[in-house]
Amino acid sequence: MADFTPDEMMTIAASRALKNDDVCFVGIGAPSAACNVARLTHAPDITLIYESGTIGTAPSVLPLSIGDGELCETAATTVSVPEMFRYWLQGGRVTVGFLGAAQLDRFGNINTTVIGPYDRPKVRLPGGGGAPEIASSCGEIFITMKQSRRGMVEKIDFFTSFGHGDGGAARERLGLRTKGPTLLITDLCLWKPDPETKEFTVTSLHPGVTADQVRESCGWPARFADRLEETPPPTELELTTLRELKARTAAAHGRAEAAA
């Protein structure tokens, strides 16, 4: 078995959650890497959609933003942003939304707006973009992020994208008919919402990771499934595909940071 990093395990574990027949709304960064690894391995027919209006895109390198020309050049078609959101997203034609988060709580609510008070923030983040609509209108939501107490918090500073609210039937009470967050993939483990409370629960530890490590890097009291599994390690194909994708991206953008 080849050596791999926690980030590589996270990206590959996230890619495995996608199916060949999925229509996936892709976020920039880690979600984009995971989605494209899936496309290049077990899900060649997956339809990847980016917020700028590109449908069925198949980039050879990872985009730096939704406006990256690589997305339009390789897309099956490009539509206007209003059409993308009204017809494709709000029309219920997207099965999975893949998002990242700056802050996340135990119910899958996401903050990408500010750290600290909104009127006097410590840090102003990029904002929601289309993520609030993605979180509400996609069939289900996958979230990927590195695990830390700073990111996975008891209470987020701002509700950018709605997950399961305060838990239970919060989405149904608001009239949301989609599933919301169904999977959280970190560099340590996999989390799924409890069927009743909707609180994220650890279902699988990545190779070499302990429950104590998960507890120590989580800002809320972590809960674990009764039957805790171990995530299968990356295969040679998965690792090679991810590393070659990152290498092409670094070369295309002319700097080593793109490979990070």
What does this structure look like?
- The chain is an alpha/beta fold.
- It has one domain: Glutaconate Coenzyme A-transferase.
- It contains eight helices and 14 strands.
- It has an eight-stranded mixed beta sheet with strand order 2-1-5-10-11-12-13-14, sandwiched between helices. The chain has a two-stranded antiparallel ribbon with strand order 3-4.
- Strand 13, helix 7 and strand 14 form a beta-alpha-beta unit.
- The radius of gyration is 18 Å and the shape is globular.
- The C terminus is likely disordered.
- The strand line-up of the biggest sheet is 2-1-5-10-11-12-13-14
- Name of the CATH superfamily: Glutaconate Coenzyme A-transferase
What is CATH's topology name? Answer: Glutaconate Coenzyme A-transferase
SSE pattern, N- to C-terminal? HEHEEHEHEEEEEHEHEEEHEH
- From the spread of the alpha carbons, the general shape counts as globular
User: Could you list the spans in which at least 5 consecutive residues all have pLDDT below 50?
Assistant: 256-260
The largest pleated sheet is described as: 8 strands, mixed
- The helix count comes to 8
- By CATH, the architecture is named 3-Layer(aba) Sandwich
N- and C-termini, Cα separation = 22 Å
Mean pLDDT figure: 94
Kindly summarize this structure in a few lines.
The chain has 260 residues and is of the alpha/beta class. Helices cover 28% and strands 20% of the residues. α1 packs across α2 and α2 (30-40) crosses α8.
Mind sketching the topology for me?
Layout: H1 6-16, E1 23-26, H2 30-40, E2 47-49, E3 54-55, H3 69-74, E4 77-78, H4 81-89, E5 96-99, E6 103-104, E7 110-111, E8 114-115, E9 123-124, H5 131-137, E10 140-144, H6 170-173, E11 181-185, E12 189-193, E13 200-205, H7 211-216, E14 224-230, H8 236-253
Parallel strand pairs: 1-2, 1-5, 5-10, 10-11, 13-14
Antiparallel strand pairs: 3-4, 6-7, 8-9, 11-12, 12-13
